[in-house]
Amino acid sequence: MSRLLRCTAGLAVASSLLLACSSGSDDTAPTTTVPATTTTAVPSSTEAPAEPTLDQVQLAVQEIARVEEPTDLAARPSSPDLFIAEKRGTIRRVEVTTTSTSSGNQSAPRYRLDRTPVLDLSPDVIDDGEQGLLGITFSTDGRRLYADYTAEPDGRTVVVEYTLGDSNSVDAKSRRVILEVEQPFANHNGGQVVMGRDGYLYVGLGDGGGKDDPDGNGQDPKELLGSILRIDPEGAEGDAEYAVPAGNPFADGQQGAPEVWLYGVRNPWRFSFDRANGDLWVADVGQGAWEEVTRLPAVGGFDAGRGANLGWDRVEGSHEHEGSNPPGGVLPIHEYSHDEGRCSITGGFVYRGSALPALQGSYLYADYCAPGLRAIQVDGGMVIAERTWDDLGITQAQSFGQDTDGELYVLLQGGQVLKLTAPARKR
Fold it and tell me: Which of 333, 312, 332 is nearest to 323 (CA)?
């Protein structure tokens, strides 16, 4: 049997996937940056440049596909192809091809969307509001695909595993349920799955929904909700669907659930590891006033965020909510208020590609309610620069993706999948 978290039943209705915040706020304070307070003082092995470079960055976008309400994009290791999750429950492949020129260089990639999904989970998926197929990722060897979705008929979170062949085909008969978690409300599902550089699967779960975390899940590490989990699907023994890594902060189950890696989150949408140094970046959707980004430095390239408490629902961002920041609580490195129509953060990645050198080391994100692409640049644990590009046609950004080369993609609710590129040179 899968580990099943028992929660009380309830109901909440959300008008969109990302609008996981309460309506209305009289807080119009400007964007602020906050020094990071972490449970570890070990700095990142790689820092952003001391001199800000964001003002040098010129961006363009290239539409590589148009699908139905994309929620996630994942690159399969050892393959150039990209895989896109659609909220309704289907996973589509984008074939990426390049050719060698006469000079030996590679041509610009070409993208072709397969007409037939590689996997169709829609009969099992609730596609309503914040519910749906919410996340996909691959094992480090590319042989296994993991998906996180909201399941019929009761809205529980389900994480499943499938095996793939060399031809990118998914073996539907290989389906294995890894984890099931009951959800007391229809929002704050989290829903992201990420394969860490340590080979373990990280699973994001919101606090279960409802205003002010009514069940107190965020500050209870013994609950799976309101946490990011770390599990080992490939190490399962006997009847278990996964193993608990020995390095988990509560692996013995005494002070918290063995699966919990960090806690105190409201609705982590999204989180990602910096591929250069292993730092963990968590974008947490606020309730009525503040959106936040927390950076958790890695120790020797690993263990970023181990046992961290991000403060919800005691604090919203760095501001008191139901109390004050708990002892040892990790404050965000960046936050912004719900002014200028902003309402719900969509977290992205630290840029580590080669096409946009001046963007190197910058963290990119967006807000679902306000147009534009946003970035911050960090040095010494402080934000030293921030910028918004509002001329790229990016609206209602639902998610981000990263390919094997470190180039970034933005997924819009309207269906466009956009690759960030440098503007074409004028001839």
Answer: 312
Distance of alpha carbon 311 from alpha carbon 65, whole angstroms: 38
- DSSP for 87-138, written as a single string: TTSEEEEEEEE--B-TTSPBPPPEEEE-SS-SEE-GGGB--BTTBSEEEEEE
Measured distance CA(330)–CA(320) in Å, rounded: 13
Q: What is the DSSP string of 15-53?
A: SSSS--S-S-----PPPEE---B-S--PPPSS---SS--
What gap in Å lies between CA 94 and CA 15, rounded to an integer?
A: 29
Residue 17: predicted pLDDT:
57
pLDDT digits (tens, 9 = 90+) for 117-145: 999 999 999 999 999 999 999 999 999 99
pLDDT tens, 154-186?
999 999 999 998 888 999 999 999 999 999 999
Coil vs helix vs strand at 150: strand
- Per DSSP (E only), the strands in 139-276 are 144-150, 157-164, 170-181, 193-195, 201-205, 227-231, 260-263, 268-273
Which class for 228: exposed (0-12), middle (13-18), buried (19 or more C-beta within 10 A)? buried
Respond yes or no on whether the N-terminal peptide bond of residue 233 is cis (omega within 30° of 0). Answer: no
7 neighbors 196 (Cβ within 8 angstroms): no
Q: Which residues pair with 33 in a beta bridge?
A: 334
DSSP letter for each residue of 67-86? -SSEEEEEEPTT---EEEEE
Integer CA distances (angstroms), 260 to 116, 314, 315, 351, 407, in order: 37, 19, 20, 27, 30
| DSSP label at residue 272 | E
Reference 38, options 352, 282, 349, 374; nearest CA is: 282
Choose the weakest-confidence range: 31-45, 184-198, 241-255. 31-45
Strand partners, 100: 106
Report which DSSP code applies to 266: S
Residue 77, sorted as left (phi over 0), alpha (psi -120 to 50) or beta, turns out to be: beta
Residue pair 114/93 in contact by the 8 Å Cβ criterion: yes
Q: What is the Rg, in whole angstroms, of the alpha carbon atoms belonging to the chain?
A: 20
Q: Which amino acid is at 30?
A: P
For residue 233, give the nearest of 195, 261, 279 by alpha carbon: 195
Summarize the confidence of residues 250-273 as an average pLDDT: 98
pTM: 0.90
